[in-house]
Each structure stands twice: as structure tokens, then as C-alpha cells.
Amino acid sequence: xxxxxxxxxxxxxxxxxxxxxxxxxxxxxxxxxxxxxxxxxxxxxxxxxxxxxxxxxxxxxxxxxxxxxxxxxxxxxxxxxxxxxxxxxxxxxxxxxxxxxxxxxxxxxxxxxxxxxxxxxxxxxxxxxxxxxxxxxxxxxxxxxxxxxxxxxxxxxxxxxxxxxxxxxxxxxxxxxxxxxxxxxxxxxxxxxxxxxxxxxxxxxxxxxxxxxxxxxxxxxxxxxxxxxxxxxxxxxxxxxxxxxxxxxxxxxxxxxxxxxxxxxxxxxxxxxxxxx
Length: 277
Fold this sequence. Notes:
single chain; alpha/beta; Rossmann fold; two-stranded parallel sheet; 9 strands; 14% strand
């Protein structure tokens, strides 16, 4: 049986909702009187337990974004529980910070499969439910969490950048294809955000990568999600939290040769510093 707080309550589905950006956005949605279903590969029970302290209207489902069948089954359960979504946020993703020389084929493929193919699978499995929402006179929104690394390249991020550039491209095309079907699409491209994913990355990742990323700035989860949440509830297609990251992205598009020249100079200095240390 569907549970509803009121006739005005909206429903959100969040993949990758058990940690990081997905978890923080879920907290904000619950405080904003949404019913929320989170979908994740791990950490679901603990996440739901914490989220239920905010609102009882949260459910958790185990999924693998690489497996569309598991997504279809979980989405069917979620729709039975709370109804079709007004908002779907795909925040599931991974990062393996290694240079191209050091990255194995399996590591590269894993990032493509989870970040890019996983985004495709989430969107494709959710489309029937988004169409149902439009039939109920709703205007649902599909949001992809990409990265500033999907707009500009970053040393040591061959797999991650490749996958996130793909997510931005996927979102661009779906924005056009779904517009006439009354489904809105947005893509979020944050700079580095202090999530468990980033914490783990710093333990093994390149110091050169870590330092170069600071050109785009670094945000706490709360800082990033404040801007992301506002962007999701606006008419913006591309949401880039932080002024510093927005300026960097704009320069890379408007003055690409200048941008690359300055990045190369900075990178040469960083590499030299670590070669001498």
C-alpha cells in the first residue's frame, strides 16, 4: 500500500543515496517533506536508520547500476511503496585516481560501467515511471551527478574524466529528447567535494592530481549540496556549485588555448616540485 503524508507530498528517488552527495541531498529532500527512496550497492540499512530520524517516509533498496534488471525490480518496488517519482537523482559513481600508464583495463572499464553505463541504465529503467508521472500531470525531473571532471580534463583521471564527460553528453542529449515529453533533465558538475569517495582517493591517489584539482576549489558536502539543491529546484540545466569552478569551466570553453596554456604551466610546476622532493 502506498504511504502518503499529504496530497501535496512529492516523491524522490536517489541512487547512490547511502553516502556522500546522494545521502546529503536525501536529508534535504526529507526536510522539505519529500518521500524518498534511496538505492545503493551497500550501506543501505545504516543510511535508512539515520534518515528515519528526519522522517519516517524513506525506504532503501539494494541495486547494482551495472545491472538494469536489478534497477527495474527495485524501481517497481519503490513505485508500489511511494508512487512514481517527481524527481530522480542519479548520484551513484566511483573514482579511481591513477595515471593512464598505471591504470588497468579492468579499472578503466569499471569506471565507465558504473559512472556512464550505470547512468544510462538508471535513466532507461526509470523512463516508464517518469512517463507515468507525466500522465499524472506531473513534470518529473531527471538529474545526473557528473563532475567538473566531465567539463575539463584532470591529470591522473583518465577513467574518471572519460566516464564523466560521457555523463554530461548523455544528459545533453536526453535534455533534448525528453523535453517534448515533459520530462526535465539537469546535470550537476561539482568540483572536488569532501565525500568518503574523495577521502579514500587521497590515500592512494596521485599528489599531483590532488594539487591540480584545487584550481577548481574544494567544497564540503554541505556547501556543495546547498548549491546543488537550489540548482535542482531551478530551471538550470548545468549546475556547477562554487564560483571558482564556474569561472574555470567558462574559461575552458570560451578561451580554450589560454586555459590549456595556463593549466600546462601550473602542471609543470607541480610535477617539478614532486620530482625534486
